[in-house]
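Record type: monomer structure entry
Structure origin: computed from sequence
Chain ID: A
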Amino acid sequence: MALRLAADVCTATTDYGTVLLDQRSGQYWELNPTGTLVLRTLLQGGDEQDAVDALVAEFDIGRDEAARDVATLTGQLRAGGLAS
């Protein structure tokens, strides 16, 4: 399933990855390059399997670990109210 950020969440690209700012709470999250690739893939309309494929292609990581990482990140973003 593609991911959509909440209306009050802004993103900024950094030298290290991506920062997400929740303007409602003032809290921010910093995503490393792996998280940035997952987020970018999902925001561009890809599903979680596309994000897994992107991780496996870009980084030295197995499919099982990539799938866990994608599920963890998307779960945390949704639980934090940053995405749906």
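Annotation 1: Residues 9-79 form a domain with the Arc Repressor Mutant, subunit A fold (CATH 1.10.10).
Annotation 2: The mean pLDDT is 95.
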